[in-house]
């Protein structure tokens, strides 16, 4: 394994050197790397990588793959290692399943874009196939939802434990200017989280322009914070303890990308997301329409979904399900009253802060909400799995029955209001919303039980909040 990792690291170094030369040799600045056609480009900004792609499906896919080839190589190296460690099955097993289940349920436009990503990366020297790009796009659904249903009978029961993301959306009397404010931070295991430092500006030939947080090689956001040129402001938190899945349906990543690109209002978003749904990546979606000031909570399970709208109120998101049918019939161990858990504790704390700041909620206030580390169970500041700015890696006794000190937690913060959405912009911070530093080497020396992550676990230093726009250039 070490020899293989050395080979990947060496290839990445060569590719990075190649891309620097390409950038300097093009019409771009030394800090900006352009695709061969001159339409796509990338640059770095305070912890984020900015990617612009445009045009027809294959064209924009090729730009994406070519510009992100080193990172796509690293993604595949990491996923192959982690998938086998976490499931006991080789990554190729999941790639075969994805290729069997999903292509017939995905429009040709998006299959073509994924083929472009693979071939663009190949052109830049990364050996990656269409099947690997498809599998990476469906990674969460394959490993978290489909896989538990096909294991032996003794292990067949599903229980998706996520506790991943805190979010809010507010409008009307609750916000400073009466418009929509949307905030979100993402929680992911840190060995994968570092891939999601990508802010992608996707300008397709048809449909809406999309500006989203994502990872190299993905069509959708996956962390799910995005804005579209139709004025839709979109975020979600994954429903915890969800236990339903139906194979051979449309994968979640395709439905979101399709909805982002082609929905012009809240109802169209729900309609596209509900078409041929699988239960994979079940979420509580928080969506606002900057054109009207209306916001929506759209909870989507497998058999059930629920839509609630308002133009004067708020919704909180913390991996919970408010709909009693989804919570009781499609989830297990999801008790909204048990504030010892991260889900219920945050679903108490977020409304407390929104009520406290009623009439004053703005992007600045939103940053404070996303950075909050008050534990409602212990009734004191206590960064842990129960706080909005999740700090799982400092929690010595996460409830219930979870491993202590897991290297996971909030590793970003994003806010926007309606005016920013209309201008296709957002304000984002890479790393903990509160600025807390995570040092991988120190963590691994203090917690040797996670030694298997050495070489894959990355540090998260402190960065600044920055306003970034679709169409920005370094």
Tell me what the structure shows.
- There is one protein chain.
- The protein is of the alpha+beta class and 474 residues long.
- The protein is 35% helix and 21% strand.
- The protein has helices at residues 2-25, 57-67, 69-87, 91-101, 108-123, 130-137, 139-150, 190-193, 252-262, 266-274, 324-329, 342-356, 363-370, 418-422, 440-446, and strands spanning 33-34, 41-45, 48-55, 166-171, 181-185, 187-189, 198-204, 210-214, 225-228, 232-238, 283-289, 294-300, 305-310, 313-317, 374-375, 380-381, 408-410, 412-417, 425-430, 466-469.
- The strands form four sheets. A ten-stranded mixed sheet has the order 1-2-3-7-8-9-10-11-12-13. It has a six-stranded antiparallel sheet with strand order 14-4-5-18-19-20. A two-stranded antiparallel ribbon has the order 6-17.
- A hairpin with a 4-residue loop joins strand 15 and strand 16 (380-381).
- The longest helix has 24 residues, at 2-25.
- The radius of gyration is 21 Å and the shape is globular.
């Amino acid at each position: 394994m070490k020899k293989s990792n050395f080979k990947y690291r060496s290839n990445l170094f060569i590719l990075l050197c190649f891309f620097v030369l390409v950038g300097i040799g093009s019409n771009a600045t030394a800090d900006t790397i352009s695709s061969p056609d001159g339409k796509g480009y990338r640059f770095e900004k305070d912890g984020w990588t900015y990617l612009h792609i445009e045009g027809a499906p294959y064209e924009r896919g090729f730009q994406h793959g070519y510009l992100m080839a080193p990172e796509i190589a690293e993604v595949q190296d990491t996923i192959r290692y982690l998938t086998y460690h976490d499931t006991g099955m080789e990554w190729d097993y999941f790639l075969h399943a994805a290729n069997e289940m999903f292509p017939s349920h995905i429009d040709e436009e998006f299959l073509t874009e994924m083929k472009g990503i693979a071939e663009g990366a190949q052109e830049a020297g990364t050996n990656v196939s269409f099947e690997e790009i498809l599998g990476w796009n469906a990674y969460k659904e394959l490993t978290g939802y489909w896989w538990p249903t096909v294991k032996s009978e003794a292990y067949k029961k599903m229980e998706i434990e996520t506790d991943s993301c805190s979010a809010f959306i507010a409008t009307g009397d609750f916000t400073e200017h009466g418009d929509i404010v949307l905030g979100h931070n993402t929680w992911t295991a840190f060995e994968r989280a570092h891939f999601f430092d990508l802010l992608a500006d996707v300008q397709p030939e048809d449909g809406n322009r999309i500006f989203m947080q994502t990872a190299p090689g993905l069509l959708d956001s996956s962390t799910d914070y995005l804005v579209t040129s139709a004025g839709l402001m979109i975020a979600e938190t994954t429903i915890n303890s969800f236990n339903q899945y139906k194979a051979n349906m449309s994968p979640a990543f395709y439905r979101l990308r399709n909805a982002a690109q082609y929905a012009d209002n809240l109802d169209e978003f729900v309609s596209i997301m509900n078409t041929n749904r699988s239960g994979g990546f079940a979420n509580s979606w928080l969506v606002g329409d900057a054109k009207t000031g209306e916001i929506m909570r759209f909870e989507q399970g497998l058999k059930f979904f629920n839509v609630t709208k308002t133009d004067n109120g708020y919704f909180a998101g913390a991996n919970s399900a408010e709909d009693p049918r989804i919570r009781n019939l499609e989830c297990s161990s999801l008790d909204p009253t048990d504030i010892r858990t991260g889900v219920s504790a945050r679903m108490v704390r977020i409304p407390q802060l929104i009520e406290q700041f009623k009439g004053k909620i703005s992007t600045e206030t939103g940053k404070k909400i996303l950075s909050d580390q008050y534990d409602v169970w212990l009734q004191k500041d206590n960064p842990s799995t129960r706080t909005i700015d999740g700090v799982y890696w400092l929690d010595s006794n996460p409830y219930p029955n979870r491993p202590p000190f897991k290297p996971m937690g909030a590793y970003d913060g994003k806010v926007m209001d309606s005016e920013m959405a209309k201008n296709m912009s957002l304000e984002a911070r890479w790393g903990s919303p509160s600025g807390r530093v995570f040092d991988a080497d120190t963590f691994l020396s203090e917690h040797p039980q996670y030694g298997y992550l050495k070489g894959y676990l990355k540090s998260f230093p402190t960065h600044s909040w920055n306003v970034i726009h679709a169409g920005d250039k370094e």
